[in-house]
Amino acid sequence: MWSVGVVMFFLLVGYLPFHHKDQNELFKIIRLGKYTFDPSYWSGISEEAKQLITSLLDVDPTTRYSATEALESDWITNMEEELLAQHDLRNSLGGISQESTRLKGMRRSVQWKSKGANLLADRMSSLTCDETMVDVSTLSVDIKS
Fold this sequence. Notes:
Layout: H1 2-13, H2 23-32, H3 39-42, H4 47-56, H5 67-71, H6 74-77, H7 81-86, H8 90-125
Helix pairs in contact: 1-4, 1-8
């Protein structure tokens, strides 16, 4: 149900609830469940929707909403087709498109780094012991997409 909360968050406002440039910090933020409802994006989103997301992104699996509880939430049970038609989701779609582009770029970067590490490992395995004395600070490769 945690992932349902992440997807709902993303679909409603067009960005992910957890973000950080450093992957280790990102994992800490996720484990702690640290996210905010930025008013510039969430001002038009109902309190019931925010409450459902909060209950789905609960870090404690014993208190996190189950599928049944989510389907019985105020936001789901009070949803009306007429109300849905009133909300303009174009801003969310723009954010989703930008996030998709960013994630594709990250994937390419990781693929290149992985290929570089494999090439380095292949080269290192063919060196003799005397040749392996290398300044590792010169081996850092970061290819931006």
